[in-house]
């Protein structure tokens, strides 16, 4: 019954708080009836029962609520059976007093709240279990398919397979047997490497690590990686792309477009490393990473422009004018991983991904804690949007760099897009030259982060240099050297600064578990008597102005210091500079102290390597990367971070046993070279060279921008005809050979230009000042294209007016080419007026000025990882729901092609949403893009890198003089996309980026968007900015409506 006494105490406290609130709010209203009092209590109680959802709330929203505190204590600390017994007891002992009635009512409410919380937790557990079973089913299906070949067929390959065996240079052999290590002999190479780290505040010097949750170890890691790669022989230039921040709340250096990280040394064929800051999102705001998701397409467009310009410049500088494309694009964290995936698809360049911390692992941990519901977790951390970004990164990446094996097995193994057993099986098949049946899994490699040892001096490795007497001795007559300012700042906290120092350095984050460390120190008397404790917990001015989680941690630290009376034994300085961190490590080493990382889970543990480099033994969590670090360094002890006694015992053992301390110090200094940046870079480039062999060798060519001579029109004709000849797109006719026919073509076009007095370039794509891209999805309820599309096309072309010769027109549609012709054949629209037709949801491109030939180069560009026939029948099986008939979805052969499998859905039939179907395909190793079109009556399955939105970006780099060629400098900001208020399931992708968008109200009556995402997924506002200056609305499809919208965008 003791538990019930606690419950009663909490309930009485809630009533007391409520009573005091009533007195303040309703003085003079003492005659209110009991029922009104009960209703007011109930309403106010409902308002109190809300968990705080976001740590960045305004200060006035963070006011402490005693009612909320006691309610959470009751709900989280007691079982519903205890609450039920309390309710029964209240009923049995109630009397006529109003307070007893209120107690009964409130107890009943809290009991039901606890039951609801328990039900929600149970539902979440069931969803996780269901997903786990679905993942296992997908893996089993893939394993069964890959096991169908006999051993003999495996050895020689199966010639009947639609997917050809991998070529010799595409074989995926075991890395430890056939991978060659990067060496100085590779210095003749000139590699251009692009790193992306999007969020946080990134700069080369005086990094503000710990300023907020977005500016932590990842920032330090990517900056040092960029510098280290740039100093590696064979690397010509390294660009670190990040977001430009021009907010007044941060330093102006974060608004500089370019910052040099390292200068090329004399005689070195290198340009060095640079931070390139690309604007995206609100220009005057520094926003957290959770709010950046809708602006990623803007970053992609800006990064694409920078890379293209840099490839051209580097090519002119060192490669005779041939563009120097990036050797790799490396995304760090989920947001940059998605950006890298988009850029990889647009440029046909290999991609690498480093997760740093993973969303699915965090999501499951938060669910198990039970403090936040699934909806609260999603709204606070945008966790589902983050997970989808990580899954997309897995779809596109060649290689995933991890810090530890634990990260591979226990964290990446949670994702739909990766399974370690299936990856190994596919790798064996590639080695043998056997078809993988269209399946793909990225390669996971463990490459521990490096460290910059330039700050480590020879004095740091000298034995016996741990005595502070020469520096802070009591003898005032001896000549003492000046000590670093940060030493004085720390030592002022200590009664006896000579004692060994236990050092912890991290952000004030609950995950870092510093409160458990403080409790362990406070409750172990021998440890307190032997050592001091220093807590470096970021920088702060006022705890109350910090984020909620940080302020809670720091407040708890102060309370624990007071509770255990640790004054004079614990240091917790308010400020430190990043450049002073080495001095902090030195101070701990000179006192013969110990470094500790007690985090609940540590993905890697870079601070452990830093501390080891200065000769500090370490104590670290057994969860995560420290296991591998201590195995390599052999310089410390692992602990269970939840066990206070084990933590205290490990610290006491290392501090008290001098021989053990000295042995750990020697081991750390001897083995630390394994974590140097040169070692990291050599491993990184070796693994990358090995994995790049599987990527297509085709590369896009940038046509150089010609000068403008007097014979401009003739030069355009010659360039165009030469491209026809080189590309093989011009075919001889009759007895006239290709050269003669080409000459006649040039003469004919020249005569045409002369007679009209116009440049011949007006008759061909190119020479465009802008592009109008028409993409409304106009269908009726049966999925038939309506006349609204014809009306829209006519009026958009008319809106161009006198600029029609300078403005190109492109049609983006989910229709196939025959369907497009049928839809427009009875109207006054000439398809030859279009520069290009992008059909079948972006999987096909046709050039009307080339007799509607399919663009084979575009097909080759998007075919990467296309499973082809292997996925054809699988889609029908996976797309239908369990209780739906197989014949509800049939392939629509008239709209299908080699790069698009189109399926017709019967009216009323139910199919899986896009996110659910994509998940099931990923579980089986298939990487595809999926689009519902024709008002939800058609499903198009297309290659991963094919989409209407991606066609705008990838094809602005086309090697032939097409509508988006960089040769004529058409910028994405000069493109206008016309869409409806809704559309196909790829509709949201058309709204975002640097291009302008005109939304035509009333143009689309029926759409497919309801089939895009399930209720548990992220929301539209996580992908599309709610207030974009690049979006304008037209009240209809009439000419004046369109013209008015264009004027509002500054186009007309």
TrEMBL record:
Metabolic or biological pathway: Glycan biosynthesis; sucrose biosynthesis; sucrose from D-fructose 6-phosphate and UDP-alpha-D-glucose: step 1/2
Q: What keywords are annotated for this sequence in UniProt?
A: Glycosyltransferase, Transferase
What sequence ranges are listed for the domain Sucrose synthase first GT-B? 192-454
Q: Which InterPro entries match?
A: Glyco_trans_1, SPP-like_dom, SPS, SPS_C, SPS_pln, Sucrose_synth_GT-B1
**Record-linked PANTHER family:** SUCROSE-PHOSPHATE SYNTHASE 3-RELATED, SUCROSE-PHOSPHATE SYNTHASE 4
Any idea where the Sucrose phosphatase-like domain is? 803-1003
Organism for this UniProt entry: Escallonia rubra
Sum up the protein's function in the record's words: Plays a role in photosynthetic sucrose synthesis by catalyzing the rate-limiting step of sucrose biosynthesis from UDP-glucose and fructose- 6-phosphate. Involved in the regulation of carbon partitioning in the leaves of plants. May regulate the synthesis of sucrose and therefore play a major role as a limiting factor in the export of photoassimilates out of the leaf. Plays a role for sucrose availability that is essential for plant growth and fiber elongation.
**What lineage is this protein's organism placed in?**
Eukaryota, Viridiplantae, Streptophyta, Embryophyta, Tracheophyta
| GO molecular function terms attached to this record | sucrose-phosphate synthase activity
Q: What GO terms in the biological process aspect are recorded for it?
A: sucrose biosynthetic process
**Which stretches are tagged as biased composition: Basic and acidic residues?**
132-141
Q: Which chemical reaction does it catalyze? A: beta-D-fructose 6-phosphate + UDP-alpha-D-glucose = sucrose 6(F)-phosphate + UDP + H(+)
Query: Assembly and partners?
Result: Homodimer or homotetramer.
Name of the protein this chain belongs to: Sucrose-phosphate synthase
Q: Region (Disordered): which ranges?
A: 132-172
E.C. code: 2.4.1.14
Where would I find the Glycosyl transferase family domain in this sequence? 496-669
**Family of the protein in this entry:** Belongs to the glycosyltransferase 1 family.
The record's listing under SUPFAM superfamilies reads: UDP-Glycosyltransferase/glycogen phosphorylase (SSF53756)
Cited NCBIfam families:
sucrsPsyn_pln
